[in-house]
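Session log. Operator J.P. requested a structure for one protein chain; no other inputs attached. Running the standard single-chain path with token output.
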Amino acid sequence: MFRYAFASFASALLIAGAAQAETAMPFALDWKFEGPAAPYFVAIDKGYFAAEGLTVEISEGTSSLEAIPKVATGAFPVGFADINSLMKFLDQNPGAPVTAVMMIYDKPPFAMVGRKSLGIEGPKDIEGKILGAPPPDGAWAQFPIFAAENGIDMSTVTVEPVGFPTREPMLAEGKVAAVTGFSFSSSLNLKRLGVPEEDLSIVLMADHGVALYGNVVIANTDFAAANPEQLVGFLRAVALGWKDAAADPEGAIASLVARNPAADPALEAERLGMAIADNVFTDWVKENGFGGVDPERFALSIEQTKSVYEFINEPDAAIFFDPRFLPNDGSLSVE
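Structure written below.
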């Protein structure tokens, strides 16, 4: 497991590197180049990062947790990760130089995705059935809260650890009744595998008592302290990329396909549309602006996390999310 001693050394290397090329800001994603990654490529193609004096290279990931140690060790100055996993990481590695700086998934896409033909329509329908859950999956990490909020008797649920590549195929083949995953990923992957849309049941945890937030932009705090203007500029460009993607989804998908020619444009456009409508530009964001958090809801999300995770140290919201680098020039407003 990562420990802060390693982070201190790696972060020192990051600062040294930044002094020589402080405008380079490689960005570590949580997942593959799919629809929800398109806004970051829009920010590159439309010159938003360049306008801030930044050179941004985007790297794929394999899970919602992966970017956290990448940024904490200084291998990347910025990344994209699940804030709930970040809280646990910081609890287990106190003082690690990483924090969240911009909320992207105001309403997280954590979901239990099942098939109606297999008896899954609501939360408690998983009782007595098999649930496929990849151990590193962000949605699976939050499932205990979902189960507690909905009175699911987990002693009756058979949890089958599955890999990401086999998760949806197992559900398509009826080997499991439901899986944990991101709503816009698992549901569309199942449609691609031939599962009829009318047979799909997408149970969003956020609609069933889970107050948690989702994925955020995270930053190495040593890098942020040495390069505050660059980080502010990075976040401004990210916000513009998301707003442009919402205004012109077709153009955003063209930017994505340029990096992933194997992507299905129609499928990824649908995936991006789901993320924009359901997870990013929520009613709260439209009223309060992009990138921030509601302090009361964030406090509640910490309390829900405490109900299923025993913190070693008393959790401090200020350590988990730092809004100081959000631009204040109006670029975060959403019309």
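Operator note: Residues 228-247 form the longest helix (20 residues).
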